[in-house]
Specification:
10 strands, 13 helices, about 400 residues, single chain, about 55% helix, six-stranded mixed β-barrel, 2 domains, about 20% strand, alpha+beta
Length: about 400
């Protein structure tokens, strides 16, 4: 018997029991749909986080100062010495504190960031209007402020804040700029106010810097910049490479990106594994129905074998039938998986990244399930003795 005739018989067996065949396919459909949808969600989340981190710059270094003994911070001038390196293009020390800001009859408790002119480029933030802090503002201790978008709206409403005044700790500051509204996994600047670091030291009553953002000259020079910073800080805090005491930490975006990618890949693999269980359940359903089909068609098998059908003809008939069920189920699953992914994007606003490779892997796995779980029923059918099959009631 040729393969085409075997396929026709297999399709006839499926069409004779349409509802049963569809319910059998349902397990495969749900499995393939789940694999595509869940893996797409995992890949979309990974892509979104990666884009947010890369938007900050892959050459961003964050230095956290813990200090040693009484020497627990760096002075602003010590921090700015890092900018003398050819491997570093920007240095932005930061002093942070919470202050109540007032304008007219409105007030709000906000986070104040004392920094310098490099912060804008080092942290890759953008202005909506006005200007950012300058070197002159820092050196001359100018009482000027750049407002986050939300703070500007809370204090001034629809009035243009540029040129207006706000008060912090009884001192008057002129508003010189407004930041663009932004939000990412690294936080939001919408409810922050930026002032010169030399002024922040006074109104926050703090001396020294504990956090420094450094921009390496390029992605290729990140390691050299890290080594140079580490060497200088080790000399300042008198620590050695083998010291158990950690007086500072240097963290770069590449490390964060690697860590998040590893975590996301693990999560995606786990989601795909959970969804793949549905495919296995669907495969068990195929085996169950095929065993029932073998039992129901025992006399048919006996007649075919009595008329000269070989063992491999009977086996291929039921194996192809199993493959057709899993193949059609896999195809429908791919279609519903893509539709479900699109629905998630439109209804829930989630970032979903669907790839054809995932769809092909899911479809291939569904065919593999069909073969694996169809082998036993096909083998059982092919091993029936014609005389026993013909006597079966």
């Amino acid at each position: 018997m040729d393969i085409l005739q075997t396929i026709k018989i297999a399709f006839r067996g499926i069409l004779d029991n349409k509802l049963r065949s569809f319910l059998t396919m349902l397990g495969i459909i749900i499995g393939v749909t789940s694999v595509i949808a869940l893996v797409s969600i995992g890949q979309g989340a990974t892509s979104q986080v990666t884009e947010q981190i890369q938007s900050l710059g892959s050459n961003l270094l964050t230095i956290n100062i813990m200090g040693r003994g009484a020497n627990a911070t760096l002075s602003y001038n010590q921090a700015m010495e890092f900018s003398n390196s050819p491997y570093i293009s920007g240095v932005a020390p930061v002093i942070t504190g919470n202050i109540t800001v007032k304008h007219a009859n409105k007030n709000s408790n906000v986070q104040v960031q004392g920094t310098n002119s490099d912060y804008l480029t080092v942290r890759n933030i953008k202005l909506s209007k006005g200007r950012f802090l300058t070197v002159t503002d820092v050196n001359m201790r100018q009482k000027v402020a750049v407002l986050g978008a939300q703070i500007a709206e809370d204090l001034f409403g629809f009035v243009d804040p540029i040129g207006q005044e706000i008060k912090m700790t009884g001192q008057t500051f002129g508003v010189i700029g407004i930041l663009e509204s932004s939000s990412s996994m690294m936080g939001s600047n919408d409810e922050e106010i930026f002032i010169p670091i030399t002024v922040a030291e006074r109104i926050l009553q703090t001396r020294g810097v504990r956090v420094i953002y450094v921009q390496a000259a390029s992605q290729d020079s990140v390691n050299q910049a890290t080594d140079e910073i580490s060497s200088k800080l080790s000399r300042i805090f008198k620590t050695t490479p083998n010291s158990n005491f950690e007086s500072f930490r240097i963290f770069d975006q590449t490390q964060m990106l690697d860590t998040i990618n590893q975590t996301s890949d693990t999560l995606t693999l786990m989601l795909g594994g959970i969804a793949a269980i549905s495919l296995l359940v669907g495969g068990i359903g195929i085996m169950n129905i095929m065993l029932v089909s073998v039992t129901e068609r025992t006399r048919e098998i006996g007649i075919r074998k009595a008329l000269g059908a070989r063992k491999r003809d009977v086996m291929s008939q039921f194996l192809i039938e199993s493959l057709v069920i899993s193949g059609i189920g896999g195809t429908i699953g791919i279609i519903t998986g893509f539709l479900l992914s699109r629905g998630i994007v439109h209804l829930m606003g989630m970032n979903v990244k669907t790839t054809y490779s995932v769809a092909m892997i899911a479809f291939g796995f569904s065919l593999l399930v069909g073969v694996f779980f169809g082998l036993y029923p096909a083998n059982k059918a092919s091993n029936l003795r014609p005389i026993d099959a013909l006597r079966y009631e």
